[in-house]
Amino acid sequence: MTTNLDKQGSSGGAPTDAQAPAPGAVAAVDPRLLVREEGLKGYLQEFGRKIRSGELGSLPVVVGLAIIWAIFQWKDSAFLSPKNLSDLSILLVGTGLIAVGIVFVLLLGEIDLSVGSLSGLAAAIVGVLSVREGVPEGYAVLIALAAGAALGALHGFFFAKIGVPAFVVTLAGLLAWEGLKQQVLGTTGTLGLDEDGLVAHLANHYFTQIAAAYGAAGLAVAAFLCSQLLDARRRKAAGIPHRPMVDICLRTAALAALLFAAAWKLNEYMGLPLAVLIFAVVLIFFDFVLRRTSYGRNIFAVGGNVEAARRAGINVDLVRISVFALSGLMAAAGGLVIASRITSASQTAGTGTLLMEAIAAAVIGGTSLFGGRGNVWSALLGMLVIGSIASGMALLGISPSIQNMITGGVLLAAVVIDSVSRRTQRSAGRG
């Protein structure tokens, strides 16, 4: 007796269930495709889906930043003045550069407690070499940056090859490099830097020409537009969903409005600060590294699941060592910008709340403490929150102790949001 299954097998047909879907069944559609197919309605549905599944992205920090600015502007109209915004933009660069390195370490699910000491050590090296030893300042800067990267790589070696926890290794580094900084500076305590030198210009030079700020904004918008068009063209050629032209134009217009408004504000005071330009270039470069290179994908893979990354053929040890080297490099760069603001290297450089602010900036900005999720723009967003709180409270005459309490509360809120978001994603099957 021949069964239906025998007939299907002999004819090469598919099972009956696959040939005839149940009456009234609706074909499953990837909700992300609705964004391209249904226009504004699709975007709203996609936004709602992300919120329900815990994919909040930068939304909480952007909303929080808007609230902070609104409150301080209401309390003191000088908060959004061109001078205060220009000062704020320079204030956040030094710690922001350190926070960029912290972002990379956090993506691995680790922590680096040595960045404050490394930043102070870098300033001390430049001060001693350029002022005491007569080394050209440019060479002194390169030596300081190389020292930061080398000491960071040393942390990574002990962590990756020896197996010492990163917390312990970098805590030891915090103590050791703080002592080395004091040894390098000696009994002098403070060394004044050349006010006309390279380092002093990092935080004190402005491009006063109006065209400089607008030109930088225009180049950034043009680069963004080109990258979006190239990405859409590549995805279209591969036959996968891509952003429609309307979407690209709206995103570009929003970015242009933001950047040109910032350029207008800066030009109302003294123009485009060199420090801000450096920070922007660093953010764009490392954003490209994380999102567009195999090295960046390897970092996310290691941070997401170390064993899976190792089985996929990724050199986990090399990734770890290089990330800690990068963290040391950015700590040194941030230390030089901070030294530039006061044109000196001192025993107190890299101490105080610097380490906590750098870590808090990365976390508040949206980088997860659990690894595998975040981006370098977290450093900018987080520093904007911390810097805005500091600037607003200084205008209102509120003591730094209250500022630290509020910043601590914001940090706790960011971690709580991250934890809840991860739990929600796991519940939705996306964690």
- Class inferred from helices and paired strands: mainly alpha
The helix-strand sequence is HHHHHHHHHEHEHHEHHHHEHHH
| Terminus-to-terminus distance | 50 Å
Give helix % range: over 70%
Give the count of helical stretches. 19
Global geometry: globular
What percent of residues are in strands? under 5%
Q: What would you report as the Rg, rounded to the nearest angstrom?
A: 25 Å
Rounded mean pLDDT score: 85
Poorly predicted runs of 5 or more residues: 1-18, 24-34
Observed structural traits:
mainly alpha, about 425 residues, disordered N terminus, 19 helices, about 75% helix, two-stranded antiparallel sheet
Task: Describe the structure in your own words.
The protein has 431 residues and is mainly α. It has a domain at 209-269. The protein is 74% helix and 2% strand. The chain has helices at 4-11, 16-19, 31-37, 39-52, 59-75, 82-107, 115-132, 137-162, 166-185, 198-204, 210-237, 245-267, 274-292, 294-304, 306-311, 316-342, 354-364, 377-396, 400-427; strands spanning 190-192, 206-207, 272-273, 344-346. Strands 1-4 form a two-stranded antiparallel sheet. It has a two-stranded antiparallel sheet with strand order 2-3. Helix 14 (294-304) packs across helix 16. The longest helix has 28 residues, at 210-237. It is globular, with a radius of gyration of 25 Å. The two termini are 50 Å apart. 36% of the residues are buried. The model is unreliable at 1-18 and 24-34 (pLDDT under 50).
